């Protein structure tokens, strides 16, 4: 990527970092949870050997000073980035060995909450957006602020999507979409069709159509090749909080603030083709695991595995006990799902088993008082979730499908 540009003060223009204005970008080290026992000088050799680091199924939890809004895995390395409500950005190296999680660097350049972030395709840059209306591009190796757009939007930026090595899209709290080319000054597309905040964005494989989920309850479609607006769907009853492509791009799934997944046919964005109501207060984030299976994060703290067509809740992957799940991300190897919650923790879940789950069309009869099936050793059953008394088990039960209600 090119060297930092000259300092410019116009709206939406690239700036070079000003260390004196920004202040020290380094933050105090973040706490890393470890289950390893602390040994005293009087411990025996046997006790020391017993306490040696052991390999776990998943990395240990990472504890932040504030809840993280943004969460992203590196495309090739065992790195995870988090941006919190204080505006701080952290990059960690994670490991399945006890005590081996490491904070590589942190940045405090954002003046307000970091809303979203993403690694570049080559993994060399980390792009962040914030409530302070700025876009920052940081060097992954050193944590250095390479570029910024200090006034990218007139209101807080809420969503970010990297299109390719040069293009990125941003959505703000007013419903405005802007497309940026890092080789040029200013936005190359600036459209506002939504009436409320942009919650999430997705891109088709051809990188032609940009899909947007908005707080106005509509799915938006924008042609970023021709820089024009295409259409808005009919409004749903709640906010659309997330949007992802499923079924090899033939279906679009949107989460909502009312706990319903809305499905659209590709090229049939005007109205929903199906809807699927979960027993959840809301669906705040979605991550596809396979073409048919996705994971959802909700305000009730539960991470659910959900099959699309046939619509089934397969079970629980994990939880943030009593705290909303803010964001989900899938690791580059596809083995780990990471989640951030209002409990200030980044948690890791082993989802290897989910890739082998097959859901047939046979609709099982719903059991009264049925529980969510635990799909990992760290996932609790519903009774255990609310009681808070579950101990981690060493074995993972075979997944059992649980049917949720369809609203159609």
Automatic annotation (TrEMBL):
A single GO BP: rRNA processing
Record family assignment: Belongs to the WD repeat WDR55 family.
Annotated protein name in UniProt: WD repeat-containing protein 55
Swiss-Prot/TrEMBL keywords: Nucleus, Repeat, rRNA processing, WD repeat
Bias kind Basic and acidic residues: ranges: 1-12
Any GO CC annotation of this UniProt entry: cytoplasm
Compartment(s): Nucleus, Nucleolus
Disordered: region residues: 1-60
Function of the protein: Nucleolar protein that acts as a modulator of rRNA synthesis. Plays a central role during organogenesis.
Superkingdom of origin: Eukaryota
Principal place of residence: nucleus
WD-type repeats, residues: 150-190, 191-225, 325-359
Organism: Sarcophilus harrisii (Tasmanian devil)
């Amino acid at each position: 990527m090119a060297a930092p540009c000259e300092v410019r003060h116009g709206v939406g223009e690239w700036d070079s970092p000003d260390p004196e204005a920004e202040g020290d970008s380094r933050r105090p080290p973040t706490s890393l949870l470890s289950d390893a026992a602390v040994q005293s000088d009087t411990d025996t050799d046997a006790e020391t050997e017993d306490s040696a680091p052991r390999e776990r199924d998943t990395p240990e939890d990472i504890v932040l000073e504030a809840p993280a809004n943004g969460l992203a895995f590196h495309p090739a390395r065992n790195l995870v980035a988090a941006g919190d409500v204080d505006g701080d950005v952290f990059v960690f190296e994670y490991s399945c060995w006890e005590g081996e999680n490491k904070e590589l660097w942190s940045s405090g350049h954002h003046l307000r909450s970091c809303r979203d972030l993403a690694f570049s395709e080559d993994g060399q840059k980390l792009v962040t957006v914030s409530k302070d209306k700025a876009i920052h591009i940081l060097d992954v190796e050193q944590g250095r602020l390479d570029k910024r757009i200090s006034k990218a939007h007139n209101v807080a930026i809420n969503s970010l999507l990297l299109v390719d090595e040069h293009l990125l899209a941003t959505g703000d709290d007013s419903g405005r979409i802007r497309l940026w080319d890092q080789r040029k000054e200013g936005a190359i597309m600036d459209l506002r069709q939504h009436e409320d905040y942009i919650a999430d964005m997705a891109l088709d494989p051809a990188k032609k159509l940009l899909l947007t989920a908005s707080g106005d309850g509509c799915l938006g479609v924008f042609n970023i090749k021709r820089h024009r607006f295409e259409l808005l769907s009919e409004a749903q009853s709640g906010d659309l909080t997330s949007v992802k492509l499923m079924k090899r791009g033939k279906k679009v799934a949107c989460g909502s603030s009312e706990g319903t997944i809305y499905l659209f046919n590709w090229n049939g964005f005007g109205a929903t083709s199906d809807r699927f109501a979960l027993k959840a207060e809301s669906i705040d984030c979605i991550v596809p695991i396979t073409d048919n299976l996705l994971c959802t994060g909700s305000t009730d703290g539960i991470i659910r595995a959900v099959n699309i067509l046939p619509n089934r809740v397969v079970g629980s992957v994990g939880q943030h006990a009593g705290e909303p799940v803010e964001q989900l991300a899938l690791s580059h190897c596809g083995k780990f799902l990471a989640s951030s919650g209002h409990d200030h923790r980044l948690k890791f879940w082993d989802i290897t088993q989910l890739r082998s789950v097959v859901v047939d069309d046979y609709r099982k009869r719903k059991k009264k008082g049925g529980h969510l099936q635990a799909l990992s050793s760290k996932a609790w059953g519903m009774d255990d979730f609310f009681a808070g008394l579950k101990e981690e088990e060493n074995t993972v039960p075979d997944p059992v499908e649980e049917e949720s209600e369809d609203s159609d």
